Amino acid sequence: MTDHLETTAIRAGRSADGRALAPVMHASTTFALESVDEGRRLASAPGSTNFYSRYGNPSVAAFEEAIAELEGAEAARAFASGMGAMSAVVLGLCSTGDHIVTQNRLYAGTQMLFSAVCPRFGIEVTAVDGTDPDAWEAAIRPGKTVLCVAETPANPRLDLVDLRRLGAIAGPMTVVDSTFATPLAQRPLSYGVDLVLHSATKALAGHNDASLGVVAGSKELLDWVWGFAVLQGANASPFDAVNGLRGLRTLGVRVARQTETATRLATELSNHPKVAEVVYPGLPGFAQAELAAAQMDLAGGLLTIDLSGGLEAGRAFVESTRIAQLAPSLGGPETLVTHPASTTHVSLFPDELEAAGIRPGTVRISVGLEHPDDVVSDLLSALDACPS
């Protein structure tokens, strides 16, 4: 009998806990060896957990096991951040002369990795319209393209990539950043995607107290990523891994509540005269509503709005909330409002912001766990401060 994912999130990742119900933290960076032969074996075995914590740690391994089980993967590797995970995948799997296909709407940190770092290493990157499945395939250079890297839903306009079409691409390895969705909403590996990645700092850990990234997939690919990760050194700390495990225990109820509130909020804002557009996968008018229904089990707790009054309206809105906090993250218990053009995507040039669909009045809202009435009332009240 197969458990529901909400049950898996509570029961998985307990290998380091013994009889303790709460996650146990193994804070040690170093572990005593019984012999030279044991040291040789642990120093070269992917995922060693009782050697040196840059190689692996029992608490971190428990978090990795939980994510692998949630994603239906053979293995996972945790990192100190989502960007630690993304850079390990890109630089660990690609070499000079290789080619990557990605999309033109991405988290800005990932976009900067592709536009500023990859060229320094002689890795070419082509960005396409991620919503067009044919564009991905057309951009592939046989024998040269090593990775297709997608982000779905994308930050911040929640564009979707067709996972079925992406997973069917032959040749390059496929990678999906599924941070906004969580495994409860979608599982990219089930569509044939090779690797799924999360900034677990966000909804997976879910309490704004853990900096974590994680990538999951086949053991063969994860062993390769592990080899680079040991040299990269962006390993997750046991403290953050324990907090990540704690967060997973409530993932099901948190995402369900956030989805319920976000759906109501999106509906309310859609009817407001100062809101030019509401982007939310759970709205009937969402541009990719059919695809959202086909590949997402939950619409999630994130929505993006465009305010009619532009920059001054965006500024007034995010600075006028009482319950919602102005902050650049998502997925936690607090409702957060983010002005992407001045924070998460501030490194982009004006033409890049336009290509990303980020306007002066664009605001991303991460719905928290407060009472839905209070969240809706707070954000509607904040609109009163906005110029039209």
Automatic annotation (TrEMBL):
GO CC, alphabetical: cytoplasm
Essential cofactor(s): pyridoxal 5'-phosphate
Pfam families: Cys_Met_Meta_PP (PF01053)
Transmembrane segments: none
Catalytic reactions of this protein: L-homocysteine + H2O = 2-oxobutanoate + hydrogen sulfide + NH4(+) + H(+); L-methionine + H2O = methanethiol + 2-oxobutanoate + NH4(+)
Keywords, sorted A to Z: Aminotransferase, Pyridoxal phosphate, Transferase
PTM-bearing positions, type N6-(pyridoxal phosphate)lysine: K202
Protein's GO biological process: transsulfuration
CDD domains, sorted: CGS_like
EC numbers on record: 4.4.1.2
InterPro entries linked to this entry: Cys/Met-Metab_PyrdxlP-dep_enz, PyrdxlP-dep_Trfase, PyrdxlP-dep_Trfase_major, PyrdxlP-dep_Trfase_small
Record GO terms (molecular function): homocysteine desulfhydrase activity; methionine gamma-lyase activity; pyridoxal phosphate binding; transaminase activity
Highest taxon of the lineage: Bacteria
Family listed: Belongs to the trans-sulfuration enzymes family.
Name of the protein in its database record: homocysteine desulfhydrase
Organism: Candidatus Neomicrothrix subdominans
